[in-house]
Design goal:
The complex is a heterodimer of chains A (about 110) and B (about 800).
Chain A: E1 2-8, E2 16-22, E3 25-31, E4 37-41, E5 55-57, E6 60-62, E7 69-71, E8 87-88, E9 90-93, E10 96-101, E11 105-107
Chain B: E1 3-8, H1 12-24, E2 29-35, E3 41-42, H2 47-52, H3 57-60, E4 61-63, H4 65-70, E5 74-77, E6 81-85, E7 90-93, E8 98-100, E9 103-106, E10 110-112, E11 125-127, H5 131-143, E12 146-150, H6 154-165, E13 169-173, H7 186-198, E14 202-204, E15 209-213, E16 220-223, E17 228-230, E18 233-236, E19 240-242, H8 245-249, E20 258-260, E21 271-273, E22 278-280, H9 288-303, E23 317-318, E24 326-330, E25 339-345, E26 350-357, E27 360-367, H10 373-382, H11 407-413, E28 419-421, E29 426-427, H12 428-437, H13 443-450, H14 460-471, H15 491-500, H16 506-512, H17 524-535, H18 549-553, E30 556-557, E31 563-565, H19 576-588, E32 593-596, E33 602-607, H20 612-621, E34 634-639, H21 642-645, H22 653-664, E35 673-678, E36 692-697, E37 700-705, E38 708-709, E39 713-714, E40 717-722, H23 725-742, H24 749-756, H25 758-767, H26 769-786, H27 790-795, E41 807-811
Parallel strand pairs in B: 1-2, 1-9, 2-5, 9-21, 11-18, 12-13, 12-18, 13-14, 20-22, 34-35, 35-36
Antiparallel strand pairs in B: 3-4, 6-7, 7-8, 10-19, 15-16, 16-17, 23-24, 24-27, 25-26, 26-27, 28-29, 30-31, 31-33, 32-33, 36-37, 37-40, 38-39
Helix pairs in contact in B: 1-9, 11-14, 12-14, 15-17, 23-26
Classes of the chains: A mainly beta (about 110), B alpha/beta (about 800).
The complex binds siroheme, flavin-adenine dinucleotide, iron/sulfur cluster and FE2/S2 (inorganic) cluster.
FE2/S2 (inorganic) cluster binds near residues 46 and 66 of chain A.
Chain lengths: ~110, ~800
Amino acid sequence: MIWTTIGSTDDIPRRGARCVATPQGKIAVFRTADDQFYAIDDHCPHKGGPLSQGIVHGAAVTCPLHNWVISLETGKALGADEGSVRTIPIRVENGALLIALDAQLQAAE
Amino acid sequence: MTQKLVVIGNGMAPGRMLENLLETAPGAYEVTIFNAEPRVNYDRIMLSPVLSGEKSYDDIVIHGDGWYIDNGVTLYKGHRIVAIDRAAKTVTSDKGVTENYDKLVIATGSVPFIIPVPGKDLPGVLTYRDLDDVHAMMLAAQSRDKAVVIGGGLLGLEAAAGLKARGMDVTVLHVMPTLMERQLDPAAGYLLQKALEARGIEVLTRANTKAIIGDGKVEGVELADGTIIPATLVVMAVGIRPNTALAKDAGLEVGRGIVTDDKMLTSDPDIFALGECAEVGGNVYGLVAPLYQMARIAAVGLAGTGQDRFVHSETPTKLKVTGIDLYSVGDFADGKDREEIVLRDASAGVYKRVILRDDRIIGTVLFGDTADGGWFADLQKKQTDISQMRDTLIFGQSFQGGPSADPLAAVAALSDDAEICGCNGICKGQITSTITSKSLTTLDGVRAHTKASASCGTCTGLVEKLMVLTLGDAYNPAAVTPMCGCTDLGHDDVRRLIVAKGLKTIPAVMQELEWKTSCGCAKCRPALNYYLVCDWPADYADDYQSRFINERAHANIQKDGTYSVVPRMWGGMTSSKELRAIADVVDKFSIPAVKVTGGQRIDMLGIAKEDLPAVWADLGQAGFVSGHAYAKGLRTVKTCVGTDWCRFGTQDSTGLGIRIEKFMWGSWTPAKLKMGVSGCPRNCAEATCKDIGVICVDSGFEIHFAGAAGLDIKGTEILGQVKTEDDALVHIVALTQMYREQGRYLERIYKWAKRIGVAEIRRQIMDDADKRQAYYERFVFSQKFAQVDPWEERVSGKDKHEFRPMATVGYAQAAE
Ligand code: SRM
Ligand SMILES: Cc1cc2nc3c(=O)[nH]c(=O)nc-3n(C[C@H](O)[C@H](O)[C@H](O)COP(=O)(O)OP(=O)(O)OC[C@H]3O[C@@H](n4cnc5c(N)ncnc54)[C@H](O)[C@@H]3O)c2cc1C
Ligand code: SF4
Ligand code: FES
């Protein structure tokens, strides 16, 4: 596990998300209304919809393609739908955002 | 063994009979129905609200196709029985189907009477009996301007009001001195005439039709005194005759109707007759209450479960024209042995008259205030001695035994056997006990279980009061579907409270209206955002995080996460320069697909999100702006070539379409808004299935709205006709603003119109010039803030973060 800086907390609007591109696909990084940060794969367990493009409410996001609601804390689909997406460890350090990636990945720039 | 039951006619009477039969003796018969009308059983009474646009056919279906399947009933739609062979016990239809029966029910209803004048067969002369007649009238109302209704009875007046609501000029011809003379006394008939005239319906009494004139189609009606009234549509509603021909041919005893005994059996012991075609006790009937009694008795007879007999009773008459309240029951002719009590309140337009004989009510006529109709009828039915309350009788029930005018108390005071629903003969006690025994909490539930208020619906208010009395707080008449799980409030309440409390941010709405979640959900947030954008155009800062991705990224997300881009092509017009610019963009960004949309413009599909601003920049250079193909807002205005090119064009439809699109682009609406402008009634721009459409005609512009061609298919309703292009624009804009202010989020115009009522929309936009102007001005004001090209904004750097990854992480370099 390598903690990699991906930007600062201000880069993401409240109730919004940004993406981080990695060779293993995109990671979606979320900021909730009360400034909690979460990172999950940007790939809906239903049909791969880009979760970073969904509407963020509470600690959940609604997928833009067919409205599954995914928990940002657990990565699991909420309600009647079943499925889950990988969650990625994330932390805030002095206003910087860091996520934990597999050892072979690190920031290119 | 199950016996074979064949029913001829699928109207309201046999429909009810089968319900009763299936309930009391399920499986006793194998049932086959032949219906000359090509459809299922529907509520004929409600044709008038369909004609006026207040209801749709779907709303008035009594038994849908599923009902026949579920109950194992075979229905031959569009089969008219042409012969009954009583010896062989068979019936044969005009399509050649022969079916044998053990028991036969004849329920062929009535046929409208056609007065035998010259011209009665001309195209454009209609009767008013079934859905086909209504459709024919609706069609005529679309293209023709003047209608004459012959007959000032219940049917004629409902037809006249419906045609008026559809925008026609209507004249009613009535041969007697006052309207509805069989149900109303002259005073009430006069008030009724005034009320109709106030709505712009012309009424001519003592008008004796001599001929219908016209060459190949109707052009007018000529009266006995020589007057000619121009008309392109004539509706004959002068009465009905029991439909007895088939029974007569079969040798059954026929008088005015098919003669039956009080068990609804005809002169053949295996054949029943019921409904309007039947004559029982020397009477024929034309209202459903007695027909439903016949239905019950025939069902009992078929099931062999009892000895009920038909008894005559008076049925009240009500006119189903919204806004005109009248009620009459019993005998109201003057006479030596009679007394009357009359109340007139000219300013309130109220007239009440109760006719007494020996201190008992024998007739009631009410106009303007009909709340006490049921109470008077009940006193009449029970032959109550009214001498004790004579002084206050006319003031109605709430004045008896106290000063309370509380309508709830009045209903509470009714006895258990007081009739609430006249159509279905349902008493108060039946309703209250069913509410309790079946734990009903909704009006629909009560309708399903008791039938009360399920036919003509005029007693709905009474039924609701009974629910309040029986259920107390458990009944919430305004029970609404909440917007979503975050609140108990429905869309309308939220909209109202946003304005009433001056709430101008989403957090303020959630706080003041006690949202149950901290920051809403993907259902309520976009809705709230729209309501705030619409209600506070100058003050509210759009909350992008509450918009669906398409509206945040100003492009349509595709299944693979790429986007599509659709620039505006005003009114569908384009040029070589525009096409070249699109071609260049497609090449430069290697856009994988280019498609012509159904909305007369070009869609570029499969663009990476990161590339969007650069694509827009190039398109912007060529003069393109966002087509809002992603928006709950104005999408396209489809046009045809109109007078510019087309040999049939009557107006510049392309120009008007472009003008509308340029005026209205950028506005947000509850759901998407699509328009069309056709240059003539050939309608090549398909304007009559759009949210708003215009059909150009020689004399001006016919404005249509509330069409649909997506999940539902629905032709438009006519808003009205205007003379100039300027007027057309103002009316369309005002209509859009009314919809913007009242529509629920994601509710297309046709659904909104159905909820609000087409007539009400017409009233506000066509008839009320002040309202129209105010709507128009509010729209124009809000456009100041809305007409900003979102693509250009983003090309200049707005919301940069939206289009770029936050970081890119690569494989670790060994050297590092
Ligand atoms: C591109 C186009 C099909 C085409 O290739 O021609 C299209 C494409 C889509 N339509 Fe459509 N509709 C297109 C014309 C229509 C039409 C025809 C018309 O407008 O003349 C209709 C029927 C008319 C109507 O709207 O009632 C139509 C009825 C729908 C509906 C059903 C709406 C309804 O309430 O019944 C949806 C679903 C929805 O909106 O929820 C829909 C939704 C969609 C969406 C937005 C699906 C989605 O949510 O992703 C598609 C987006 C594709 C894209 O990215 O461009 N589209 N769609 C047409 C774009 C027209 C334009 O220039 O803007
Ligand atoms: C516009 C309008 C408004 C009305 N308003 C009211 C109101 O407010 N209150 C009220 O109480 N009543 C009202 N009525 C009257 C009420 O609708 C009728 O009394 C009732 O529908 C009659 O029912 P029925 O079953 O006898 O006949 P219908 O409902 O007329 O049904 C007869 C059916 O038999 C079919 N048929 C005829 N001959 C044959 C054949 N040979 N083979 C097969 N099928 C055949 C016909 O096509 C028709 O579908 C209204 C009627 C109309 C037209
Ligand atoms: S009809 Fe419309 S919504 Fe359906 S697949 Fe085609 S473009 Fe998509
Ligand atoms: S892909 Fe996310 S809900 Fe279907």
